[in-house]
Amino acid sequence: MDDSSISRELEAQEYLRRHKVLELLNTLTSLLLFHRPERTREFLINELEKLKLARVTDKDYPSLFDESNLVAVFGILDPAQQGFISVTQYKEALKTLGIEMTNLPWPDNAMINQETFKQQVLSELKKANRTFKS
Q1: How far is CA 18 from CA 12, 75, 133, in A?
Q2: Which long-range contacts (CB under 8 A, 24 or more apart) does 81-87 make?
Q3: Which of 10, 21, 25, 74 is most deeply buried (CB count within 10 A of its CB)?
């Protein structure tokens, strides 16, 4: 491979990263497989329109998870129903939901209640689902 080919490949990778193209395709594919619409093309167009509207309003980004899903996840993490989970459990929940987060707002020994869990995860899902260049 010559230098121009390598340079072009690096440019392409940077373009995909900068514009979050792979994230967009993953989101659309996940939504498609979850809903399995009869009219695939119309469904995808509709989801892209929702993304466009979400960008303008900064809310209602398409996501497979809602509050009820997060309550269920919290319940799995808190089987003794103590009302809180550890930061380690929170990090694992984020990984399971496909969210990468390096800087947490709490110390490692903090405990997180269900409401905080829901608010934080919904916020992180919103950030993760901004599948286009801002």
Answers
A1: 10, 36, 7
A2: 83/113, 83/114, 84/111, 84/112, 84/113, 84/114, 85/111, 85/112, 85/117, 86/110, 86/111, 86/112, 87/111, 87/112
A3: 74
**H or E stretch including 32?**
helix 21-35
Burial of 28 (0-12, 13-18, 19+ CB in 10 A): middle
pTM value is 0.63
Query: How big is the chain by its Cα radius of gyration, in Å?
Result: 18
Q: Which residues contact 10 (CB under 8 A, 6 or more apart)?
A: none
Domain boundaries, the chain: 1-134
